[in-house]
Design a protein that fits this description.
- The chain is mainly alpha-helical.
- The chain has 7 helices and 3 strands; from the N terminus they run βααααβαααβ.
- Strands 1-3-2 form a 3-stranded antiparallel β-sheet.
- Helix 1 packs across helix 3 and helix 3 packs across helix 5.
C-alpha cells in the first residue's frame, strides 16, 4: 500500500517531459529498425505500402508498452521516479493491466486538448485529474 497526496499539475507535467525524452529515444531506435527493414528508405505509404500502418501501430505499441509495463510493475516511469510520483489504485495498491490500459487511453485524451482533463484536478475535491477519476487510479506524490 502506498500513501501520499495527490500530485499537482506541475509534477505531472515535469514527469511527462522526462518520459518524453526517453520515449523519443525509444521511438528513434524503433524507427531505425523499421527503416532498415524498408531497404533504408523512410517508412511512408509510397515506400512501404500497407506496412506503414503496422509501423504506426508499432510506434503506439512502444509508447503504450512503456507506460503499461512501468505502471503495472513498479507504478512509476522514469519521470515519475525523478519527481517522486507513483500510479496507484484508490486503496494504494499497484495497478492491474486493465486499469493501467484504461488510464493510458483516457490520459491521452486528458492531455490532448490543452491539458484540460489534467487541469481538472484543481476543480476536483480529491485533486484527481479527469482520467484519474474515470480509470479509478491516482497519481500520488510520495514523501521523501
Amino acid at each position: 500500500m502506498t500513501a501520499g497526496t495527490s500530485a499537482g499539475f506541475g509534477r505531472r507535467a515535469a514527469a511527462l517531459l522526462y518520459d518524453s525524452v526517453l520515449l523519443a529515444a525509444l521511438l528513434v531506435v524503433f524507427t531505425s529498425g523499421a527503416v532498415l527493414l524498408n531497404h533504408r528508405v523512410a517508412v511512408e505509404r509510397e515506400t512501404a505500402g500497407a506496412w506503414v500502418y503496422i509501423y504506426r501501430a508499432g510506434l503506439m505499441g512502444v509508447v503504450a508498452g512503456y507506460y503499461l509495463l512501468n505502471w503495472t510493475r513498479s507504478g512509476q516511469t522514469l519521470g515519475m521516479r525523478a519527481w517522486h510520483l507513483r500510479a496507484v489504485t484508490p486503496s494504494g495498491e499497484p495497478l492491474a493491466l486493465k486499469a493501467a490500459a484504461l488510464r493510458f487511453v483516457l490520459g491521452a485524451f486528458a492531455w490532448a486538448p490543452a491539458a484540460l482533463g489534467v487541469l481538472w484536478l484543481y476543480a476536483d475535491p480529491e485533486h484527481l485529474a479527469l482520467h484519474d477519476r474515470l480509470s479509478k487510479t491516482r497519481i500520488v506524490h510520495l514523501p521523501r
